[in-house]
Design a protein that fits this description.
The chain is an alpha+beta fold and 78 residues long. The chain is built from 1 helix and 6 strands. Strand 5 (58-65) and strand 6 (70-73) form a beta hairpin.
């Protein structure tokens, strides 16, 4: 599992806050669409949110556990 975190930004910014994932290469900012999914899930009181990410020609499915603040690769379970 990889840690995720919200990062506060300028309150006048369009997104209001951004979310990051701790990768092997440091913290990486989620794109606007994924940040929106995370924020919507939190606003609904959901405990998890699922999304897909493209890396090269491959797509990967992930689940973010909002309580544990961890991302899980659905294929690997980690």
């Amino acid at each position: 599992m990889q840690p995720v975190q919200p990062v506060r930004t300028d309150p006048l910014a369009v997104a209001g806050e951004i979310w990051e994932l701790q990768s092997d290469n440091g913290w990486v900012t989620f794109d606007t669409e994924t940040t929106g999914l995370i924020k919507d899930a939190k606003a609904r009181g959901a405990s998890t949110v699922e999304y897909s990410a493209r890396r090269g020609d491959a797509f990967f499915k992930y689940t973010i556990d909002l309580g544990a603040m961890k991302q899980i690769n659905q294929e690997k379970g980690t």
